[in-house]
Amino acid sequence: MPLPDTMFCAQQIHIPPELPDVLKQFTKAAIRTQPADVLQWSAGYFSALSRGDPLPVKDRIEMPVATQKIDTGLTQGLLKVLHKQCSHKQYVELADLQQKWKNLCLPMENFQALLQLDPCEDKIEWIKFLALGCSMLGGSLNSSMKHLCEILTADPEGGPARIPFETFSYVYRYLSKMDSDIPEVDTESYLANLKDTVDSRKNGMIGLSDFFVLNRKV
Amino acid sequence: VASRLTDRTSPVMGTYTYTSRPRALPCQRRRYRDSIMQPAEEPMHYGNIMYDRRVIRGNTYALQTGPLPGQPDPTEVQRQQQAKRRALARKRAQEQLRPRTPEPVEGRKHVDVQTEIYLEEIADHVIEVDMECQTDAFLDRPPTPLFIPAKTGKDVATQILEGELFDFDLEVKPMLEVLVGKTIEQSLLEVMEEEELANLRASQHVYEELRNVELAEVQRLEEQERRHREEKERRKQQQWEVVYKHNETSQKVAARVFAQRYLEDLLPSVFGSLRDGGYFYDPIERDIEIGFLPWLMNEVDKTMEYSMVGRTVLDMLIREVVEKRLSMYERKEDQPPYVKPKDGLGGPGVKEEPLMDDEFHEQSTSQPQRPLSDSDSLQRTPSDGRYMENVSPQERKLMEEGEDEQTMRKTSGRELLQPRGDFEP
């Protein structure tokens, strides 16, 4: 409602009833996401909100890791956010992805570095980008697979992070292809072993416990 | 008057007071129409109700039924009624005598007519008109008129320029403060709460995972343990069975050996006793007994029969011959009879008879011939000897043979064949 021409008293200032709610959601998102540049991120947030896209919000609060410029600042949470935003399409435009990357206040150098690992023209397959991001998170192949499982799973947090075996094998093959150290024979045998374990369970899902053994401290 | 006597006013004090003795007030409301005959005012007589004659005192079930003193007697009533009747009759009679208007002429009728200027409808029926009257329904209390006080004071005017009265930024500041502050505070709280809940849930899940893994492990171990135990049980069972079977087998073997040895002698002794008992037969002997001897007997029988038949035939021949001789003798009865050979004939004939009788007893075929033979022999004895001579050597042979035959029943067929040989030619 546009403001009347002359206002006489404070009571005439009309606050729309949705405003407090919107503000609250925004504040909560901001607190959870902890963006480095609030303004940039807010712009991204509201544009996504106006378009009806998934919002660049982390589900769980995660304190920002990047304190210096050397560190990538890419965390599992941020990858999850990106995944939430982009996973509905198989291919994402590079420009779009770049914009989202910026909205999360991640440094552009890292983005370029990621893209250089697997160069492509305009579009990139989202799952591949995710895989590359995971590899950037963790050092080894196993740890990147673990991150991937945790990002992709539908299970509740802390539970057995299960993803379909096809996805797992696809990503595993892709990453091992990227990494020229591991021969292909090994990959295939490893996958075959895992497949036996998975088939016995009859739901086609592979969980963390199958390939990643956490050393428990006694 | 009494009231006035009781009334008194206060003594000279200045205040006004009034008192009066209580008195019975007459009824103020008029119950009946003003009657013409009644006087305007009548002094109210009141008396003590206890002594009022109108009030019945005492029991009411033994009232005097006579006329009350107030009421007239019944005779009086009757007299009054009669008087009334007489008066009525007198009045009627007088009316009749009163002159009236003459009866109307033929074809005319008397009609009452009004002769006044304005006609008036004369009817017995009184015109009645119903009129109603009612007070209005309750009206609402009319609203109170606005109280507009009279105007007091002075009128003064002023003018407000734009922007003087209201500064948006200034006004909005407290609102914004509240809005933003509350929002941030609320959202912080909520985020913290959610965070805590999510952490709890996450740890719950982790714990559940661990528990599941451990449970699986425990189950696996249990399974293993159970399988081991079962295996052990089964092996033991198998061993027991083997041992048992072994025992049984050895027992069986021992029993069999013993039985065999015990019964070793049984078989020969059994066979011996049976053989002694005659249960076993020499097959050749049996064969002879079964096959040969019956045949032999048959043959013997046959031979005997032949001899019998031969004898029978011989007997018939003899009879025929005798009959012929008899007939010849009868023809030759003219000739002297022959006596000598008769005794010899008689002897052998006598001998013959019982022998032949005996023989014929044992043969069924010659039954009817016996009496004949008897008669023949009887006949023979007195008659011919010549004939008998011819026949007698043969007869004697036969007789001898017949004698021997009885003792020779069981002998061989060679002797039997002899007579047959005699007859054959």
UniProtKB/TrEMBL annotation, chain A:
Protein name: Ropporin-1-like protein
Keywords per UniProt: Cell projection, Cilium, Flagellum
Gene Ontology annotations of biological process type: flagellated sperm motility; sperm capacitation
Assigned protein family: Belongs to the ropporin family.
GO CC, one annotated term: nucleoplasm
Cellular location(s): Cell projection, Cilium, Flagellum
Originating organism: Ailuropoda melanoleuca (Giant panda)
Main location: other
Record keyword Signal present: no
Record-linked Gene3D superfamilies: cAMP-dependent protein kinase regulatory subunit, dimerization-anchoring domain
MF term (GO), any: identical protein binding
From TrEMBL, chain B:
Keywords: Cell projection, Cilium, Coiled coil, Cytoplasm, Cytoskeleton, Flagellum, Phosphoprotein
Pfam families, sorted: Radial_spoke_3
Location of this chain's protein in the cell: Cytoplasm, Cytoskeleton, Flagellum axoneme
Entry keyword Coiled coil: yes
Span list, region Disordered: 64-107, 332-425
InterPro entries to which the protein is assigned, alphabetical: Radial_spoke_3
Biased composition (Basic residues): 82-91
Biased composition (Basic and acidic residues): 92-107, 332-343
Residues forming coiled coils: 211-241
Entry superkingdom: Eukaryota
GO cellular component, one term: cilium
Ranges annotated as biased composition (Polar residues): 363-382
Primary localization: cytoplasm
Family statement drawn from the similarity comment of this UniProt entry: Belongs to the flagellar radial spoke RSP3 family.
Annotated protein name in UniProt: Radial spoke head 3
Organism: Ailuropoda melanoleuca (Giant panda)
Gene label: RSPH3
